[in-house]
Every structure is written in structure tokens, then in C-alpha cells.
Amino acid sequence: MLYFSVSIVLINMKLQIPKNLPQFSDSASLFISSGEYESHFYLAHQGILEELESFKMPPREEARKKQRSIAASRGKDPGVVSRRKAYIEDLKKKFQARVGYTIHGLMDEYQFRSIYLFAPEPVAKRIVNGLEPSEEEKIKIKFFGEYTKLHPLKMIRMFWEKIGILISASIAPPTSLEIKKIIDRRIIRHPAIQKIKGT
Does any domain span residue 84? Predict the structure, then answer.
């Protein structure tokens, strides 16, 4: 029997985006930071960054004990190792489904025109695979790495630094320096920045 739990927290935390960072004045953007068992969803619009939803799906204590027992017996019983692998894969699928369901709901409610995804590469791939084509095309930049503990405003700063790289590389014309034009003209969908690995 597999054990897992879902911890969902609806949050009304709002942060003022510093004036030297994009204010997302013309349209709302969705920032997502996700790990293997934890995800956070943020709305960036009109100079405000608001956490819309956050949830975790960690193994319960019974499952953690089971995993420790399995780990101790690793190499002794191939069947035990196989069951552990099946457990982990099942939990990841359930988590991916929950993330996809949340994205669907937020897209319907807020009609985001752009999504920025911060997650380890394997997690990001699972999330993208669970999206509708119309949702996937709204992902403008993917940052690969573990960012669930990162302060949300630092994600905005990371995003803006990458925009600066594009401008410096002349991917974006100088006349597009206005924040709203950079976001709304979709010039940041250049394939060169679709895969940005974190440190």
C-alpha cells in the first residue's frame, strides 16, 4: 500500500516589486517554482508579486520508514527495490498531476500570457508533459535548478537579468527596453534561452 499526503496552502502574500525590476503592467505573468514534492505559484502584475497557491506532497512518516527499511535491504531483495522504485514513480506522477491541475485552474482564472518555470530539469519536463499545447506555448523561459526555497523576488531578478543578456546580445532591439514591450512582444521566446540551468 502506498502512503502519501497532500498539504495545500492558499496564500494571500503580496510583495511590492522593486521599481528597478519589471512591473508587468500590461499583462499578468505566472511564475512557478517547483521541486520533486513542492510547488509555489506566483502572480506578477501591476508591480505586485502575489503567491496564489503553494502545496507539498511529501511521503508520510509510514512511507519514509518503509523507504529506510527498503534502503537498508537494498541489494538483498530485488523485489523490494522494485517496489520502492514503483512507489517513488507513483508519487511523482500524482504530484505532476496536481501541478498540472493547478496550472489549468490558474490559467482559466487569470488568463496568463506568459509563464516562467523554475525547476530541476526532470521536474520541468514532467510538468511540461502534463500541459495543454496552448499552455505549454506560454512558457517563455525555463530555469533549471532547485528554487523552491528561493525568495520569490529573486526569481523576478533572475528573469530580468536574462532579459538583460538578450538585450546585450542584440536579440532584442534597443527600442524594446520598455518593460511592457519586452514582455508583450514575446521577444523572449528565442530558443537560445529556453534552457537555462541553475547553479
Answer: no
Question: Tens of pLDDT along 97-155?
Answer: 999 999 999 999 999 999 999 999 999 999 999 999 999 999 999 999 999 999 999 99
Residue 78 maps to a domain? no
Which band of pLDDT confidence, cut at 50, 70 and 90, is reported for residue 177?
very low
96 lies in some domain:
no
Q: Buried b / exposed e across 67-78, counting CB within 10 Å, b at 16+?
A: eeebeeeeeeee
- What letter would DSSP give residue 60? P
Looking up cell 546580445, which residue turns up? 169
Q: Which residues form the domain of 32?
A: 7-58+102-197
Task: Answer yes or no: pTM beyond 0.90.
Answer: no
For 41, the enclosing helix (H) or strand (E) is strand 38-45
Residue 151 in any domain: the answer is yes
Q: In the predicted model, what is the mean pLDDT of residues 41-59?
A: 93
In 57-149, DSSP assigns E strands to 114-119, 139-144
Q: Structurally, how many domains does the chain consist of?
A: 1
Cell numbers 490559467 correspond to 107
Q: Is 145 left (phi over 0), alpha (psi -120 to 50) or beta?
A: left
C-alpha cell at 163: 532579459
CATH (domain of 27) = 3.30.420
Largest CA distance in the chain: 65
